Write the structure tokens for this entry.
Amino acid sequence: MCGVAGIVSLSSAAAPPPREALMRMVGALAHRGPDERGLYRDERAGLAHARLSIIDISSGQQPLADTSGTTWIVFNGEIFNYVELRERLIVLGYRFRTRSDTEVIVNAYRAWGEAAFERMTGQWAVAIWDSAARRLVLSRDRTGICPLHFCERKGRLYFASEVKAIFAADAAIPRSFDPAGIDQIFTFWTAVPPQGVFQGIRELAPGHFRIYENGGVREKAFWKPRYPESSSPRDGQFSGSLDDAVEEVRSALESATSLRMVRSDVRVGSYLSGGLDSSLVAAMGRRFAGERFQTFSLRFADAEYDEADFQRLMARAIGSEHHEVVVSRSDIAEVFPQVIYHTERPILRTAPAPLFLLSRLVRARGVKVVLTGEGADEMFAGYDLFREGKVRRFWGRQPASTRRARLLERLYPYLTRSPVQQQAMARQFFGRNLSEHATPGFAHDPRWRTTSAVKRLFSSDMRAGSASRNAVSELIARLPPEFAQWSSLAQDQYLEIQTLLSGYLLSSQGDRMLMAHSVEGRFPFLDEDVVPLANSLPPAYKLRILDEKHVLKRVAEPVVPSDIIARKKQPFRAPNALCFVARDAPAYIAEALSEMAIRDANVFDPGSVARLLSKCRAQAAAGDGDVSNSDNMALVGVISTQLLHQQFVASCPGGLHTLELTVDIDREHRVEAALS
């Protein structure tokens, strides 16, 4: 993984991209690519790159051109089938000067045009500049593993892996929150691309490419999730038995994991949470690791969140060299400002902070690449949300039934303050809108409603700014026509992928925390072959009555200890509000939550925030730690938003601009130099 950035003049009248701006952009991305930096510039376009060397370390420096020197590329990510694509391109007559996957992309684009992206297996954010045609192509991988933001302003297009690089390019670019983006954050936990958090800055949607040419722009999806339709259930649906599905999934995952292990010129380790997904990935990764395989786990000082027994059990089972980091509430509070600097958006949970600390440990141990289990819950129906939706739909068909309502008691067994412990309250909460059980978003409605309750803290200006928008209605309005023909489970999975997967799990908890310490994450469950296979499976293979990820548990049986397979599903969690209300809390918290700071950001009402803070402090002082789910989200959301305002709105992010360049092609100055 790397950092990409660029500036393109959208008209011939615009001045050439400033070299100094490109240098600031690549400097702001130095954490994404500490190994090498490069720059290309002509009279219309400038490309910049910060490299984390994983494949073809000795060559493949970027920006990189085709053999004609007219088509240039900067690329963040990995193309895992680049060897196979390279062989096809050689047959077609293309020649290569490097062994890099970067050169494969640029030649693939020359050979197949936009169709090249459909042939690529991997994770990427790529910018291709055809200097002869004066055409810019931006593309992002299918599930949005690699980020790519863009901003059009005064005849120029700015693009970058992270927003901070766009702001660093020109201090005159306006820096303010977009009420629509903030509203989405406090509904879905994330902004849904192309919507961004900041005014004027958008994010390229996963599975899309965007082309600027001849003064115009067009965007197209080259991939979207697909599921079997009820009108023709055999069309696209897996037709084999459950045993057949187990073998197909096992084969696809082994192939995906093998590619992510062997297509690397540096060692690959693995995260190990103690759950099924990371355990299965680690077990498969161990097969292809050679003599030494390192695994990395998070532990918590709070016993409620600690999974050390299962992590160590799996590490012993595969014989890995295992490393742990123990995280306390004070640790989370201490690093939280750094975490928000990298998430570049408000968050409603502190979970990214421990992952920030884990990636720091990975880098300290000399590892650049780790496998992770993200994507398994979305593809194989692992979340309680899917079970909850099934129970509520079953209940909704007979809303007067008390027996059906009791199925709620089988949800959330891992929570010490489970929402189903008090039956009357649980039935009231989950029993809302049961008559809507056949409508889109039904399963997600309780979570969206609970999150949206935090908007009670919004300032009057923020309320007014988002009053004309309804995040849920807009999301539902964009659903594909075939959505109504999918199974209820497929509908729930699709909405989860469209909202939480890319914008939160793969970003705030994924790429941003990994790349903060120059570590690349690889995700076998999001492989090009694994995803459509999982989507094609009958719902009962994934959610068998209320047994989540049933087929995946069967796949894991030969390689994962039975205690891990049989344990109740427990999502990754961390302490939240209580991290920030201790007597020895860092000084930045009081500063960020001061009345003056709240008024300056103008996202929240100062009086409402003061009452929330007082309530959380009182609960902490009582010693029972009983902070409600809503108050947890509210306090974390307020603090993260205030920090984001301090770092990106009240001040302009900068970056190192005196960096040594490995590639320096400046045609505007008629200077061409490739420095070794």
Q: What stands out?
A: The radius of gyration is 25 Å. The chain has 27 helices and 19 strands. Residues 488-515 form the longest helix (28 residues).
